[in-house]
Amino acid sequence: MPRLLIVKTGDAFPEVVEAHGDFEALFQQALARAGVSAAVFDARHEPLPDLAEIDGLTITGSHSMVSNAEPWSEALKPWLVEARRRNLPMLGVCYGHQLMAAAFGGVSDYHPAGRESGTHAVTLTEAGLADALLGQLPERFPAQLTHAQSVLEAPGDAVVLARNAHDAHQALRYGPRQWSVQFHPEFTPAVMRAYLARQVAALRDQGQDPDALLAGITATPEASSLLVRFAEAVAREAGTA
């Protein structure tokens, strides 16, 4: 079994936690379907783990904002830079995506078009179609999204793997074993509905139709497969598959 670590960077809404589990639990549930377990490190309250004791890591979403530069979040940046230097497999999700990009020289901040929420199509780039992790997905697939901030400028050496009409950086690769995605592979349709229910007023203020977004929620099996694919890749490279 690979030594896989979930880096927890925030908590889901209380009603989501009660009904479905917190962010790290959603990751663990998705991984458990493939028989993979993962330890959890809460970056807000625990000291940074020794990278030598980890075979791979994933970084969760958060209700925090990367641009707020909270001390615990800033402390993760050099740790992630060192993890990349060691070529440790990494997969950042939402906040994790934005944090990795910022740590490696990009810019993450509020998206000028506002929030993106609901089930939306994501399209792979030519590089994405050839990518070791994302290349097994269809060229265009649905994904669950909820974010106000985005990677506005990708690091100069990052490769854009996926985009959509809202966000030019839906997926990035920073090295042979380091990826991040703006969408939520761990979200189920029920979790996405719970998030949209919380955002009705904000979405209406933004000129969007929350009822249409709710009606458009679908299953996202292709996007959801990424966590397991990543864990399986980590296991192969660690010699524990």
TrEMBL record:
At the top of the EC hierarchy, this enzyme's class is ligase
Q: What is its EC number?
A: 6.3.5.2
Superkingdom of this entry's organism? Bacteria
Fetch the InterPro entries from UniProt. Answer: ChyE-like, Class_I_gatase-like, GATASE
The keyword Ligase is annotated on this UniProt entry: yes
Please give the Gene Ontology molecular function terms for this protein.
GMP synthase (glutamine-hydrolyzing) activity
Alphabetical keyword list: Ligase
Q: Which SUPFAM superfamilies does this entry report, sorted A to Z?
A: Class I glutamine amidotransferase-like
The residues covered by the Glutamine amidotransferase domain are 16-195
Cellular compartments per GO CC: cytosol
Any keyword Metal-binding? no
What the entry lists under PANTHER family is as follows: GLUTAMINE AMIDOTRANSFERASE YLR126C-RELATED
**The protein's name:** GMP synthase (Glutamine-hydrolyzing)
Q: Which organism is it from?
A: Halomonas campaniensis
